[in-house]
Design brief:
The complex is a heterodimer. By secondary structure, chain A is an alpha+beta fold. Chain A contains 17 helices and 28 strands. In chain A, strands 3-5-1-13-10-11-12 form a 7-stranded mixed β-sheet, with helices on both faces. In chain A, helix 8 runs parallel beside helix 16, helix 11 runs parallel beside helix 12 and helix 15 packs across helix 16. The radius of gyration of chain A is 27 Å and the shape is globular. The chains are: A alpha+beta, B alpha+beta. Chain B: Keywords: Iron, Metal-binding, Oxidoreductase.
Chain lengths: ~725, ~180
């Protein structure tokens, strides 16, 4: 239950604590580090998508200037596959045999004195392939189909009976393409061995996973491995796994006995660190003429790699979105000769919501109801599967306050009925119910003789604001000023933290920091428990609070003393305490655990003669539980919205159907929004702290993206009468 | 079915020796003499030879703007400039923007407006934004959007980047108005 009551520093939109480093170029990302004696690596990627390596000639590469080693599957040591993780299996160990499973697969690593020499030598590796016909399409009859890959297929009610009651049924197929995460930071690894000990700078979202995985893969003790990632140049999911290039860099460093740095090239970022897989979705929705949903059936098909896994249940979001008595969801994957997909900001939700929220609009129109009214009519007041009240849900407020701010009431329902000169105007909206996710986390808090605090956990801040919000939270809980608190992260020697992902880190970490800070205050009370000189003698934790660096009795603020005084009188330099959080359980609380909710309102403008589509305005109304920092939380939503606009209108990773080659693997060819493509936007936070945890946050890192594709598609329909069911929405689909 | 990947252009030749050149780069007002492989870009010279890692490598193809630095007062994507071409030119990087520990107004505005998230594109955005105003291209909102479109931000901080630039631009106007 929520216990954090005050809001002195928590919630305030203070500037990021790491802003001075980031604006001066002083924040050090993994590829900014150098070590004495460091050498450089470059990769050789397969130019075919399936088959075998018949021969690989490295003699010219080995003879090239500066080259120290060229390692291939013929010379690589045997490596274990990484362990099972919270996110599923690890990628296969690289370069263990002659098989080619996808284009770009790493088949050699070259180490040289300079990066230029390594890159040049990599081009001299001569490969002969025995190419096979690659399986590249989910419809290819040769593709192995994995049914119900995560055991999440659901059915409630009687789907056939539901459709039999329906007066209106819409049934359509939606497709979404491969998208590539493309964090701006090229992912880099710098590995340095000292005997069996290993230090790694890595562009990871999860240092502990890198540590555990490398210990397994190289059969060395975890205690000797240290993984550092104080700053990461974005991730969007690309840094969640210990990918092949990380393993190969560590392997190369062990062989040449020098520190080795590898920086992926931008084209390699398209084939080495995951991507959002394409999807083909069939969705069927039935409603009565009064506007009551009676049946939803949603089938999702995604692509996955031949010998790897990806969690991508695209239809699962349709289970809990609406109060509908009959719902069936099914997911499948087709195994293809492609680089393995992985999580990309709002995995599965980003694709599934596009189909669901487009179909909901079509149903609303078919029954002659405003799409906002239709969504409110079918609002899920309790969790549709569990039948429990939500731990928090302000989606209704999101709809109503968002509509008010946007001016939804000005919308005239007929498609094509709103114009501004040559521009057709369309209003569209979409609702989002983001799933709850939290996993165990730990943190440690210390207060020193000077009264300042040091709090840490092995988390990462990939731009989300973790440094800042945890500093604010610890300052609040310890009664200190923000300037007196340092929160540190990005080091696997710190207490265990899970990945920055799944919109789950803030909830997990804030509750660990909460526990650590409360226990630290208890430590101070323990020290003075029998101290006749202390006004806190004998006080219990619930009797005291903390203000201005002092612990004092709640009923009498004069009855207390400062951290510094307690430490000095008892001859202590510092006191520390650990805290850990475990995810709340619905059955224990009698509440369904809620993730964030949101309503997205979009105005588009379309030039019908040219097919030009512009997003003119976006209002995002978000129930994110307790907001720890209004400024950084709003940035998360703004950034997610840009990602959503990008998914809707720009991004499509193009795979050549003949060769499996990524045909647009550069920033010149792979479209993403630039400054001129993005409008100013409004973000509203509604609702209050979630009841399931002490701090009451709900993650906001992904919900910003979800719903934009459907809201833009719905707005395009409103402007033109044309329903686009294939992303991205491009000019050729809009020529009228 | 067999497929042979060949490097015909290079096959049979011995790898070429790459000449080294002695150059002097003037960066943030300080002159540095170094010997580099002729293939070394300005970006790699700054980062790997001079330890100035503020400018970032996001694509190495001139498409993202993360490596933007000033060369003789103009914004340049340093991944597309060879170090050897920059001899005798005045180079300013993000590390040279603040003076005596005081943030440049654009740096302060970026912090205030939360005009970044991961921060990786930020040095390039800030250099570009400073030049934008000096170029007289921050007069209108449309200009700011257009002439900042060479700097990608994957975290999507574009609206806040514009707000920071507007803020600095307005302050420049205020100062001019008073004088």
């Amino acid at each position: 239950m929520t216990t954090l009551e005050t809001g002195r520093t928590v919630g305030a939109g203070i500037d990021r604590v790491d802003a001075p480093l980031k604006v001066t170029g002083s924040a050090h990302y993994p590829n900014d580090f150098s070590l004495p004696g460091m050498v450089h690596a470059a990769l050789v990627g397969s130019t075919v998508a399936a088959g075998r390596i018949r021969g690989i000639d490295v003699s010219r590469a080995e003879a090239a200037p500066g080259v120290l080693a060229v390692i291939t599957h013929l010379t690589a040591p045997a490596l274990e596959r990484g362990p099972m993780t919270l996110l599923g299996g690890s990628p296969p160990a690289p370069m263990q045999d002659d098989r080619i499973l996808h284009y770009g697969q790493h088949i050699a690593i070259v180490v040289a004195e300079s990066a230029e020499q390594a890159r040049h030598a990599a081009r001299l590796v001569h490969v002969e392939y025995e190419a096979a016909k690659a399986v590249l399409d989910v419809d290819d009859p040769r593709a192995e189909i994995v049914e119900n890959p995560w055991g999440l297929d659901t059915q409630r009610g009687d789907i056939a009976a539901g459709f039999a009651q329906a007066d209106v049924v819409v049934e359509d197929t939606y497709t979404t393409p491969d998208n590539t995460n493309n964090p701006l930071g090229l992912m880099a690894t710098l590995a340095s061995w000292h005997g069996d000990a290993l230090t790694v700078h890595d562009s990871t979202q999860w240092p502990h996973n890198v540590r555990t995985s490398l210990a397994t893969i190289f059969k060395v003790p975890e205690s000797g491995i240290r993984v550092l990632a104080p700053f990461v140049g974005g991730g969007f999911g690309a840094g969640l796994r210990v990918w092949s290039h990380v393993i190969l860099t560590v392997m190369a460093a062990r062989q040449v006995k020098r520190p080795v740095k590898l920086v992926l090239s931008r084209p390699e970022m398209f084939t080495s660190v995951g991507h959002r897989p394409n999807s083909v979705q069939q969705i069927k929705v039935g409603a009565t003429r009064d506007g009551d949903l009676v049946a939803i059936e949603h089938h999702g098909m995604s692509s996955v790699a031949m010998e790897d896994d990806d969690y991508e249940p695209v239809s699962f979001g349709s289970v809990v979105a609406y109060a509908c008595p009959n719902v069936l969801t099914r997911d499948r994957q087709a195994r293809l000769n492609i680089p393995c997909p992985g999580s990309m900001r709002a995995p599965a939700e980003g694709q599934g919501n596009f189909a669901l929220e487009s179909a909901i609009d079509d149903v609303a129109r078919a029954v002659g109801m405003d799409p906002l009214e239709f969504r409110l009519r079918n609002y899920a007041d309790e969790h549709p599967l569990l039948g429990l009240p939500w731990s928090s849900k302000a989606l209704r407020e999101c709809y109503l306050e968002g509509a008010e701010r946007f001016g939804w009431s000005r919308r005239t329902p007929e498609p094509g009925s709103m114009r501004d000169g040559r521009w057709l105007i369309g209003y569209g909206l979409a609702g989002v119910s983001y799933p709850f996710y939290q996993v165990p986390c730990q943190a440690r808090a210390s207060v020193r003789r000077d009264g300042s605090a040091y709090v840490r956990s092995a988390a990462t801040d990939i731009g989300t604001g973790t440094y800042t919000v945890m500093t604010q939270l610890a300052a609040e809980l310890l009664g200190l000023e923000v300037e007196q608190v340092r929160f540190d992260l990005g080091d696997s020697d710190m207490p265990y933290a899970p990945q920055a992902g799944g919109s789950g880190l803030t909830g997990a970490l804030s509750n660990a920091v909460h526990t650590a800070c409360r226990r630290l205050v208890q430590e101070f009370l323990d020290v003075v428990a029998d101290d006749a000189a202390s006004p806190l003698r004998g006080a219990m934790l619930d009797d005291v609070t903390v203000t201005d660096g002092r612990v004092h009795r709640i009923e009498d603020a004069a009855q207390g003393e400062s951290y510094a005084d307690i430490l000095a009188r008892h001859g202590l330099e510092e006191l520390s305490a650990d805290g850990r959080s475990t995810p709340p359980q619905s059955e224990d609380l009698g509440m369904a655990l809620a993730g964030a909710f949101g309503a997205k309102f979009v105005e588009v403008r379309i030039d019908p003669a040219l097919g030009l589509l512009r997003v003119a305005r976006v209002v995002s109304a978000i129930d994110g539980g307790r907001i720890l920092n209004e400024k950084t939380a709003a940035s998360q939503i703004i950034g997610g919205t840009v990602g959503g606009i990008s998914q809707a209108m720009f991004e499509e990773t193009a795979t050549d159907r003949g060769t499996g080659r990524i045909a647009n693997a550069t920033f010149g060819d792979y479209l993403m929004p630039v400054n001129a493509d993005v409008p100013d936007m409004e973000v509203l936070f509604v609702g209050g702290p979630d009841r399931a945890t002490a701090v009451g946050t709900k993650g906001v890192g992904e919900i910003g993206l979800v719903g934009l594709a459907a809201a833009i598609g719905n707005a395009v329909h409103h402007a033109t009468g044309r329903r686009i069911r294939s992303l991205p929405i491009t000019i050729d689909q809009l020529m009228l | 079915m067999k497929h042979t990947e060949t490097e015909t252009r290079l096959s049979g030749q011995s790898p070429p020796e790459v000449p080294q050149v002695d150059i002097t780069l003037t960066v943030n007002g300080i002159s540095h003499s170094l010997q580099v492989d002729t293939r070394v870009t300005l970006l790699d010279a700054l980062r790997d030879h001079l330890g100035l890692t503020g400018a970032k490598k996001g694509c190495d193809q001139g498409a993202c703007g993360a490596c933007t630095v000033m060369v003789d007062g103009r914004r340049v994507v340093s991944c597309l400039a060879l170090a050897a071409q920059c001899q005798g030119r005045e180079i300013t990087t993000i590390e040279g923007l603040s003076t005596d520990g005081e943030l440049h107004p654009m740096q302060a505005a970026f912090a205030r407006h939360d005009a970044f998230q991961c921060g990786y594109c930020t040095p390039g955005q800030i250099i570009s934004a400073v030049c934008l105003i000096e170029e007289g291209r921050a007069e209108t909102e449309e200009d700011i959007r257009e002439f900042m479109s060479g700097n990608l931000c994957r975290c999507g901080a574009y609206p806040n980047i514009r707000a920071a630039i507007r803020d600095v631009k307005a302050a420049v106007h205020d100062v001019k108005g008073e004088s």
